[in-house]
């Protein structure tokens, strides 16, 4: 496939070489969520290397902080008649034929010690009579999810950030925006060009770079994701020549609060795990009509069932009814949801919650091996920005925090072992394409916010829960048009670079969705409503040459 001309651009920012400052570290971690911090802590636990962790906003701000349901791991197999093998089976079943079974096995197995490590760092998970309380979510055959009420991510992020900030070898920089990965003449990653809070650009040079920038949920109008998840890491890896895979698989969460003026606040799947029931506008419970597991069917099934029900009842929402649960349980298990809903005048102990699906998790991403290494030398990717093969075509709830922990540690371990043998950073080179006057050479007035909203709306309506070829083509043409005038522009703010990244990442999702002519897992096309044997493959996209987009099965 031929790439849009605008994709020929390698670096988004140009600058005056004599004015730029340089900073050196051993290992640079881009992102301070569960994956990035796990990597950083692993590095300093084994070596005396210096680690620099950067985040584009406040350090805690990312999907990790907002995670609700919990983290899945078979910590007490006997008490719950569970086994790591059952966790493996459930994950593979959910993945609809596309899981990498070795990766599933290693995440489920190593996940146990990774979560134990989290406990030893001081993470507080809910207990009952002194024992850890495990809950269930859709697709899990056993109760194996550790949680901190309905704010698990906040507790994990607090624990990891505290631990990282207590380490002398780790330096953290917030409000530091990674614009591009800098690669040398043989294509190896040497560092990152970053925008610092005071508005100046800085080269951050490192022996190894670990990308942990999270997903791209913010590409969609309706999303559970925080502001920072705009696909920057995927877009910058693509520009740097990394293979990107499985981008068509975007997971939608069935239940987000749907009240005018409310952010699309997630209502955790654990609420259904504890007995919450979905009812339609007429008060009818409907999930049994769609799947034998009813409320605990896989998320894609529940999301599509809700869409169908909304159509049939001519309503723009359904309801999640928790009123049959013990009110004390609600107070104890879902205090944050109770508080947020009360703020909108809904007492969830007495009233059903208006909900509808939203974009939630980016299954695809930068292709990595079992150590988180990408195909760009010295570059690793961990957490939601990466595609490890764990989730296949559909992610099991509470498996992504686990993946971030396990792959963060794995990448940290391998990157640090290899960095120990590397020479000290020498005086940096600067790729010639970046050495330009910093002043804009071409500018047209662009309302960034307007274009961002248009893009989010386009993806929601045409590249959403239910897709078809005609709609996808329309979306592709539209994004190509936007790319043609936005990508060549020379900007100097994170907001503008973010929009360029959002357009690039959207195009990769669209290319994947158009090419995969079948329905599988979270990718549902009503023009090809069934899975196809021919598509029993991972699909990767690479910026092969300046004019070609190489799309191939892996
Ligand atoms: P994040 O935690 O998203 O962190 C991304 C980091 O990258 C941030 O520090 C950000 O500042 C930085 N960054 C991004 N771009 C740049 C840039 N250009 N320059 C510099 N820094 C950058 N999963 C579960 O397993 N269990 C759950 O219960 C659960 N609940 C969820 C609830 C919600 C509301 C959401 C949104 C997700 C939930 N998930 C859950 C998914 C899970 O939270 C995420 O997949 C996971 O936290 C991602 O972690 P991460 O470290 O990869 O990225
Ligand atoms: C939830 O709490 O429902 C989200 C869990 C997840 O996405 O893993």
Descriptive notes:
The chain is of the alpha/beta class and 554 residues long. Among the domains are: 250-360, Succinate dehydrogenase/fumarate reductase flavoprotein, catalytic domain (Flavocytochrome C3, Chain A, domain 1); 438-553, Up-down Bundle (Methane Monooxygenase Hydroxylase, Chain G, domain 1). The protein contains 14 helices and 23 strands. The protein has helices spanning 34-46, 63-66, 84-94, 101-120, 152-165, 232-239, 270-273, 299-312, 327-333, 335-343, 399-420, 448-462, 469-486, 494-515; strands at residues 21-24, 27-30, 51-54, 71-72, 127-128, 131-132, 134-135, 145-146, 170-173, 177-183, 189-195, 201-205, 208-211, 244-245, 250-257, 277-279, 318-321, 353-362, 365-367, 379-381, 386-387, 539-543, 549-553. A 5-stranded parallel β-sheet has the order 9-3-2-13-20, covered by helices on one side. A 5-stranded mixed β-sheet has the order 21-19-14-22-23, with helices on one face. A hairpin with a 5-residue loop joins β10 (177-183) and β11. Bound molecules: flavin-adenine dinucleotide (FAD) and succinic acid. Flavin-adenine dinucleotide is lined by residues 30-36, 54-57, 61-64, 66-71, 152-153, 177-178, 212-214, 224-225, 228-229, 232-233, 266, 361, 383-384, 398-401, 404.
Overall, the morphology is: globular
Q: Any low-confidence stretches, pLDDT <50, length ≥5?
A: none
Q: Strand order, main sheet: write it out.
A: 9-3-2-13-20
Q: Name the helicity range.
A: 25-40%
Hetero groups in this structure are: flavin-adenine dinucleotide, succinic acid
Q: In CATH, what is the class of the domain at 438-553? A: Mainly Alpha
Strand content: 15-25%
Radius of gyration: 23 Å
On the 0 to 100 scale, the average pLDDT is 94
Could you describe the largest sheet, including whether it forms a barrel?
Answer: 5 strands, parallel
Overall CATH architecture of the domain at 438-553: Up-down Bundle
Q: Can you identify the CATH superfamily of the domain at 438-553?
A: Fumarate reductase/succinate dehydrogenase flavoprotein-like, C-terminal domain
